[in-house]
Design brief:
InterPro entries: Cyt_trans-like, NadD/NMNAT, Rossmann-like_a/b/a_fold. By secondary structure, this protein is an alpha/beta fold. The chain is built from nine helices and six strands, in the order βαβαβαβααβααβαα. The protein has a six-stranded parallel sheet with strand order 3-2-1-4-5-6, with helices on both faces. Bound molecules: adenosine-5'-triphosphate (ATP) and nicotinate mononucleotide.
Length: 201
Amino acid sequence: MGRYGVFGSACDPITIGHLVTMEMVIDRRKLDGMILVPSSIKRRDKGRDLTSNEHRLNMARLATADNPKIQVNTIEMDAEGWETYTYETMKKLKQEFPNDELLFVMGADNLQDIVSWHKGHELIESNCFIVMGREGYDMADIIAKDSFLIKNEHRFDCLSKGVNIETSSTLIRSRIKDGLSVRYLVPQPALEYALKHRLYQ
Ligand SMILES: Nc1ncnc2c1ncn2[C@@H]1O[C@H](COP(=O)(O)OP(=O)(O)OP(=O)(O)O)[C@@H](O)[C@H]1O
Ligand SMILES: O=C(O)c1ccc[n+]([C@@H]2O[C@H](COP(=O)([O-])O)[C@@H](O)[C@H]2O)c1
């Protein structure tokens, strides 16, 4: 039996923030590996159209190719219609990895919202989570202010970041659009791919 993190991200594009978060969580919680799940283009809650599944998946694969502990999984990209919610993803992944323990990994910004996600209560009551601190989010305070989170506090393993990399995909897209450098913020092979395909210009 292994212990794996499940890290969901739009990966539009994948950044060193995502990569360092996955690596730190694997290392600090002695996980056997991380399952990186890029979101489906069918997601409509990001307030904008995502880059195509194919391009985001290719960048995620290029960025993680040198790390044997990170496996990219297309379960959400392959899902039909609205089956792209985390509740459904975790249910299906548990069927795919019946002998392993799976922990959903997220940044502290998502801790604030998770109760309102699709089937939020069922999602929380049937999973365990590793939450990585982010600038401006007090994880203990977020839990203390929500009675449902308090009741399920034992399910949330909150990690202070230690290594602080506050970059985001939004920042990367905006800098590329403005002709500014994002060197070192996105792993070089993924960045070359994005520039070659003019994804964010
Ligand atoms: N720098 C970071 N440190 C810790 N967690 C992060 C960081 N960037 C993103 N995350 C977490 O990664 C997950 C995926 O987030 P997402 O794909 O929205 O990244 P993002 O870079 O914030 O994207 P966008 O700017 O497009 O919203 C979320 O759980 C988020 O909290
Ligand atoms: O299931 C939901 O309702 C839900 C709502 C918001 C976010 N999520 C998941 O959380 C992960 C990070 O989302 P985001 O919005 O920070 O890109 C990603 O895997 C999403 O599928 C899931």
